[in-house]
UniProtKB/TrEMBL annotation:
Pfam families: GDP_Man_Dehyd. One of its GO terms (biological process) is nucleotide-sugar metabolic process. NCBIfam families: dTDP_gluc_dehyt (TIGR01181). The lineage of its organism: Bacteria, Bacillati, Actinomycetota, Actinomycetes, Mycobacteriales. Its cofactor is NAD(+). It catalyses: dTDP-alpha-D-glucose = dTDP-4-dehydro-6-deoxy-alpha-D-glucose + H2O. Belongs to the NAD(P)-dependent epimerase/dehydratase family. dTDP-glucose dehydratase subfamily. InterPro entries: dTDP_Gluc_deHydtase (IPR005888), NAD(P)-bd_dom (IPR016040), NAD(P)-bd_dom_sf (IPR036291). Residues 4-294 form the NAD(P)-binding domain. Its EC number is 4.2.1.46. Signal peptide: none annotated. GO terms for molecular function: dTDP-glucose 4,6-dehydratase activity. This is dTDP-glucose 4,6-dehydratase. Keywords: Lyase, NAD.
């Protein structure tokens, strides 16, 4: 089976490639990646003959058409993925997330190739902290940020291409991922590498915002379950019942690294900051038989701390620039 993985040099895509090569000897992979600031091709450097890396833009119709024609399956991870960046400059988000997805869909339509679309729970907006509800496949779209609105738009393009053109596509909307190879701009790796570098962790606002954490391997196993057994045209929510507030995450990282639990700062809040995400993944579990393997968040987080401590060469070069970028806008408020 020949699989085209877009965004395979980024966090989730690279973990998907590593796990797939390990678990599926019949699969050959081509990664199409623009190698933006978010990519780290060193993650894929020593993977051997069953993988090739093409540097290119998913919005480049010539490259995309040529590659799609030569594959049995497209798994589309490539995106501009960071909310804070989308608030500073949305233009690349529109280009990659909307125009890039459109370009892939047209190629997949032309060549009749199976397509799986990776998306986010953020398309549903947010929940109050005391809301007993969770997102389901029937929750109306209500995105808050330039990032989540472009992801929502990309999902709707996929749905339209399924209905209007009979595309063989599925969609998954997953909650917040953690694990190895995540860029240090993101919350968990930022705070781990802050502590490792002697910088105090930074909590936006009151630190009470809740995210529904899932290990990246559980996400990617769910993606394969949907590719293997999902119903064409359908959407599946992926989540592992991992709701934790941001302050608790930081306190756990500090504890794991042997620091006082209050050794962090509150900084200016993110504009439009979504309060809480929570996924009901009943459909994925009952219809496709998927179950998460990482059931203990503290243990998974501790293993992730170990990974960043043992792989400083993977992240240290990008760390200074990321912190300089944050310092330009955030102020300590408590
Ligand atoms: P990431 O930012 O770590 O990686 C994105 C990758 O896409 C990078 O390698 C980058 O170079 C590549 N890319 C960006 N623009 C491109 C373009 N125009 N053409 C080709 N490649 C391009 O992102 P991630 O966290 O791994 O997220 C992957 C996907 O999963 C995204 O679609 C995101 O919306 C979705 N998602 C992420 C999470 C999460 O918690 N990180 C949760 C749910 C869904
Ligand atoms: O829910 C899925 C989404 O999760 C994905 O679609 C996105 O691609 C991914 O980036 C992530 O979005 P978030 O905005 O939730 O993730 P981020 O890591 O930026 O922030 C997580 C939470 O931590 C959020 O409430 C903001 C907060 N935060 C973040 C940073 C970087 C802080 O308190 N301090 C920080 O320094």
């Amino acid at each position: 089976m020949r699989v085209l993985v877009t965004g395979g040099a980024g966090f989730i895509g690279a973990n998907f490639v590593l796990r797939t090569l390990e678990q599926r000897p019949d699969v050959e992979i081509t990664v199409l990646d623009k190698l933006t600031y978010a990519a780290n091709p060193s993650t894929l450097a020593t993977l051997g003959e069953r993988i090739s890396l093409v540097e290119g833009d998913v919005a480049d119709a010539v490259i995309v058409d040529r590659l799609v024609a030569d594959h049995d399956l497209v798994v589309h991870f490539a995106a501009e993925s960071h909310n804070d960046n989308s608030l500073a400059d949305p233009s690349q988000f529109v280009h990659t997330n909307l125009v890039g997805t459109y370009t892939l869909l047209e190629a997949v339509r032309a060549h009749g190739v199976r397509y799986h679309h990776i998306s986010t729970d953020e398309v549903y907006g947010d929940l109050e902290l005391d809301d007993p509800g969770r997102f389901t496949e029937a929750t109306p779209y209500n995105p808050s940020s330039p990032y989540s609105s472009t992801k929502a738009g990309s999902d709707l393009l996929v749905r339209a291409w399924v209905r209007s053109f009979g595309l063989r596509a599925t969609i998954s909307n997953c909650s917040n991922n953690y694990g190895p190879y995540q860029h240090v701009e993101k919350f968990i790796p930022r705070q781990i590498t802050n502590v490792l570098n002697g910088i105090r962790p930074r909590l936006y606002g009151d630190g009470r915002n809740v995210r529904d954490w899932i290990h990246v391997d559980d996400h990617n196993d769910a993606v394969w379950a949907i590719i293997d057994r999902g119903e064409i045209g359908e959407t599946y929510l992926i989540g592992a019942d991992g709701e934790v507030d941001n302050r608790t995450v930081v306190e756990t990282i500090l504890e794991v690294l042997g620091q006082p639990a209050d050794a962090f700062d509150f900084v200016t809040d993110r504009p439009g900051h979504d309060r809480r995400y929570a996924i009901d993944s009943t459909r994925l579990r009952t219809e496709l038989g998927w179950q998460p393997s990482y059931l203990d968040f503290r243990a998974g987080l501790s293993a992730t701390v170990d990974w960043y401590r043992d792989n400083t060469e993977w992240w240290q070069q990008t760390k200074v620039g990321v912190e300089q970028g944050y310092a330009a806008t955030e102020k300590v408020i408590g």
